Amino acid sequence: MEPHNSAPVLITGGARRIGLALAKSFLLRDIPVIIAYRSDYPALAELKEQGAICLQGDFSEHAGIYRFANQVIQEAPKLRAVIHNASAWLAESAAIPSEQVMASMLQIHVYTPYLLNQLLEPCLRGQGQAGADIIHLTDYVVEKGSDKHIAYAASKAALDNMTRSFARKLAPEVKVNAIAPALIMFNPSDDDEYRRQALEKSLMKIAPGESEVVNLVDYLMNSRYVTGRTHTVDGGRPLR
Ligand SMILES: NC(=O)C1=CN([C@@H]2O[C@H](COP(=O)(O)OP(=O)(O)OC[C@H]3O[C@@H](n4cnc5c(N)ncnc54)[C@H](OP(=O)(O)O)[C@@H]3O)[C@@H](O)[C@H]2O)C=CC1
Ligand SMILES: Nc1nc2c(c(=O)[nH]1)N=C([C@H](O)[C@@H](O)CO)CN2
C-alpha cells in the first residue's frame, strides 16, 4: 500500500503480536504510525527507534479512552487509519464473576472502538473520497458463537455490527471494515493438545501468522470502494 497521504495510522494494542506486526509493516514502508500500548514490552524501544509514536493507553475505564483520544489529537490532526486491534480473549470461569467478564469484554471491544471512532472522527474526515479507513478486528466466532467465550463473542458481534453503522455514518470520506480471523497465531501458554485440536478445525490446518492480517489490512486500505463489510480469515473453517 502506497501512502496517499502522510497522516499516521493508529493501531491500538500495537506493542505485541498482530498489532506489532501491523506497526512494523507500515514503518518498513515509511508510513507513519501511532500505537496505543498498555503494558511495557521490549518491542516498544524498537518501534520508537523506527519512528513510531507510542502512547500509553489503558482502555479499562472510559476516562482512559478519552485521555488517549486527546493525546492522539494533539499528536496528529489527521489520521490515515484507525485499526482497533486491542483486545482480551477472556473466557468465562469460576474465578471471575460473569458480570465482570461481560463488562470487561464490552469495555475493550465495544466502548473503546465506539468512543474512539467518534472522538477521532474529525481526524479521519477532511481527506477526500475514501481518504481514511477504520478497521475493526473482530473474530470468526461472531458467526458461530462460542461456548467458552460467550461474553467475548457477544462483544465482538457488537463490534461487527458497529462496522456497518460507522460505514453508513462516515461514507464516503471514511471506509469502515471488519476483519474476522479464526486461528491466526497461538499463545505461548497453548499446550500441544490444544494446538493439535485447534489446527484440526480448519481445512488449511495451519496457524498462518500475522501476515494474513497485515495483507488484508493493506488490501482494505488500498481499496477506494470496499466498505461496511466483514472479511473473514478462517482457513476454510466453516467447511470442516
Ligand atoms: N491471535 C489470534 O489467533 C486471533 C486474534 N483475533 C483478534 O485479532 C486481534 C489481535 O490479536 P492478538 O494479537 O492475539 O491480540 P492480544 O491478545 O495479543 O492482545 C492485543 C493487545 O490488546 C491490548 N489490550 C487488551 N486489553 C486492553 C485494554 N483494556 N487497554 C489497552 N490495551 C488492551 C493488550 O495489552 P496488554 O498486553 O497490556 O494486555 C495486547 O497488547 C484481537 O482483536 C483479537 O481478538 C481474532 C481471532 C484469532
Ligand atoms: N485478543 C485475542 N483474541 C483472540 C485470541 C488471542 O490470542 N487474543 N486468540 C484466539 C484463538 O486463536 C482462536 O481464534 C482459535 O482458538 C481468538 N481470539
UniProtKB/TrEMBL annotation:
InterPro entries: NAD(P)-bd_dom_sf (IPR036291), Sc_DH/Rdtase_CS (IPR020904), SDR_fam (IPR002347)
Taxonomic classification: Bacteria, Pseudomonadati, Pseudomonadota, Gammaproteobacteria, Enterobacterales
Function, as annotated: Catalyzes the reduction of dihydromonapterin to tetrahydromonapterin. Also has lower activity with dihydrofolate.
UniProt EC number: 1.5.1.3, 1.5.1.50
Keywords for this protein: NADP, One-carbon metabolism, Oxidoreductase
Gene Ontology biological process terms from the UniProt entry: one-carbon metabolic process
Name of the protein in its database record: Dihydromonapterin reductase
Enzyme class: oxidoreductase
Organism: Chania multitudinisentens RB-25
PANTHER family: DIHYDROMONAPTERIN REDUCTASE (PTHR43639:SF6), OXIDOREDUCTASE, SHORT-CHAIN DEHYDROGENASE/REDUCTASE FAMILY (AFU_ORTHOLOGUE AFUA_5G02870) (PTHR43639)
Entry similarity comment: Belongs to the short-chain dehydrogenases/reductases (SDR) family. FolM subfamily.
Catalytic activity: (6S)-5,6,7,8-tetrahydrofolate + NADP(+) = 7,8-dihydrofolate + NADPH + H(+); 7,8-dihydromonapterin + NADPH + H(+) = 5,6,7,8-tetrahydromonapterin + NADP(+)
Sample GO molecular function, one term: dihydrofolate reductase activity
